Amino acid sequence: MNTRPKPAAAPDDDVHLIVAQDEEVIIEHYPEDWIAFVLFWALAIIVFLQFFTRYIMNDSLSWTEEIARYGLMSLAFIGGAVVTRKKAHIAVELVSNLMGPGPMRAALLALVDFITLGFMALLAYFSLTIVERMHYQRMTVFELPMSIVYGIVGLGCFMMLARQIQVVWRNARDGWRRTHDVTEQIHAD
Fold first, then answer.
1. Which is it for the CA torsion 34, 39, 45, 51, positive or negative?
2. Number of neighbouring beta carbons within 10 Å of residue 105
3. From 27, 48, 73, 74, which residue has the greatest number of CB atoms within 10 Å?
4. Mean pLDDT along residues 142-157
5. Would you say 113 and 176 are in contact if contact means Cβ atoms under 8 Å apart?
């Protein structure tokens, strides 16, 4: 009588406990992405140059602080267009999250979209008036009109308006339904 247990067979190499499949990654580049990319790196270089000349060389360049300030303003508004396209603006979604899917929730989401659209339209309009008023104002270090700086801000406002129009159009086409509704998520057993 043989009491020794039989050795277990070696598992096949093609048997896996966890099977994962990578999804296709699609990288899209929009105009506001490229403008924000260039502004960001120009701002990084200017701020590094300011730090280097002020603290390492002990002889600061006078124009770096002003240009860095204007670059940060421009980057904020161009970045606003990126965020608008991705629907990633800061929002308080407590009421819509508490509501179940239905016509009341869709009406609330539509109202929020149209209020945001109206705000973006006002922002774009007022940016035009500021550009007109700042044409005769000059920068401190360079003899350039301040309307250039506010023109870039206005460009960001109009890009945000255009992206918000696209967002409203897409949401209206989908009936203001969220794809990540709590009721559509898989519940644990």
1. negative
2. 19
3. 74
4. 93
5. yes
Which residues make beta-bridge pairs with 138?
145
| DSSP H or E stretch at residue 175 | none
- Of 28, 45, 24, the C-alpha closest to 82 is 28
3-state class of 61 per DSSP?
A: coil
Nearest-CA neighbor of 152 among 45, 5, 17, 32?
A: 32
Whole-number Å distance between alpha carbons of 76 and 32: 11
Task: Say if CB 59 and CB 17 are below 8 A apart.
Answer: no
Residue type, 68: A
**Amino acid code (one letter) for 26:** I
Lowest model confidence (mean pLDDT) among 5-9, 23-27, 105-109, 139-143: 5-9
Alpha-carbon gap, residue 74 to 96, rounded angstroms: 33
d(CA 127, CA 78) in angstroms, rounded, equals 13
CA angle 183, 187, 189 (to 5 degrees): 150
d(CA 88, CA 174): 18
Determine contact, residues 87/142, Cβ cutoff 8 Å. no
